[in-house]
């Protein structure tokens, strides 16, 4: 096993392969606070990639209701239990946040470090029943008393939230390390994780050891398949893109405007190159309000979430790590610059590589948590790969009143 640096953990960890990093990394942010669970993203992915025979139970994109929902069912609870069994009480964090360790230092074992002899990572194979219901327990709430830790409002007494999931295209994929055929690889140009179908023999080690269960077995072809991050769109080779890098299908169709996807530049040691004018880098590293999903697993996932404000913090800390309190606070009271960047979610299909904010007049002052928050009608301009302007939007959204042309006769 090699030693690699995982900046989400704030330390080095063991992994099957030596340190390697793509030139850029596919990264996405999902704003849980905005999701309405319409499943438009789910069906866009299904109708594009997994509509064929043998793919009936494949949902590369799914939206599940937490805390009870999951696809496959119990995927996160079971992996957390495996970690706890291997390292009782070890899923703890320490140290103060720093540039090289933004969430502190994880003191427990990762899924790689907790693996038994002969395994690359702890894991399990879900049963057929667990794959059978992609939206099980949808809209099922839980009483706050079940997870009470002394917190008070703004958390609700009964709560649930929607968790949007695709493959995380991890920096250290468990599926990749698990494959005995070396059929899984990470693209050097964008970090997208793919399965070489010609090499795959369907051993399902990737299914077993991916903690997020986003590698899936196809029985008719006896191979595994997974989300490909719509790489023809991301690389600009899809005819619809006209050569411009574009967001994936699940991102582009979202009516709730909860998704933002793009690419960040990666240094040889796996850390991100500073780019405060990249909207993804800004919301993850500059003014961190987007958090990785179960960073303690050690895979360094590249899909991030703006956590829901109404959920007990104890639950969110387990899911997103110790930085979740600061992330919620940053979202509740965003800076002037962050208010502008948040407007870039789902306003263009083109990938935004950089942005600038043109200041406008003050238009409002609201009360948030007993303190005033100023709102400015700034303009945020998004730029594409070659520096061309691809979108321009204001913080204050315009209102349109359509003229009454016909009487309502109903």
Task: Kindly summarize this structure in a few lines.
With 410 residues, the chain is of the alpha+beta class. It contains 10 helices and 21 strands.
Explain the overall architecture.
It is a single chain. With 410 residues, this protein is of the alpha+beta class. The protein has helices at residues 40-49, 75-86, 174-178, 205-209, 231-235, 249-252, 279-286, 313-320, 324-332, 336-341, and strands spanning 2-6, 11-15, 24-31, 62-66, 93-94, 105-106, 142-143, 158-159, 161-165, 184-186, 193-195, 215-218, 223-226, 259-265, 291-292, 303-306, 354-358, 362-368, 371-376, 379-383, 389-394. It has one domain (2-335): 2-Layer Sandwich (Alpha-Beta Plaits), CATH 3.30.70. A hairpin with a 6-residue loop joins β10 (184-186) and β11 (193-195). The chain is globular and about 65 Å long. 43% of the residues are buried. The model has no long low-confidence stretch (mean pLDDT 94).
Secondary-structure map:
Elements: E1 2-6, E2 11-15, E3 24-31, H1 40-49, E4 62-66, H2 75-86, E5 93-94, E6 105-106, E7 142-143, E8 158-159, E9 161-165, H3 174-178, E10 184-186, E11 193-195, H4 205-209, E12 215-218, E13 223-226, H5 231-235, H6 249-252, E14 259-265, H7 279-286, E15 291-292, E16 303-306, H8 313-320, H9 324-332, H10 336-341, E17 354-358, E18 362-368, E19 371-376, E20 379-383, E21 389-394
Parallel strand pairs: 3-16
Antiparallel strand pairs: 1-2, 3-14, 4-9, 5-6, 7-8, 10-11, 12-13, 15-16, 17-20, 18-19, 20-21
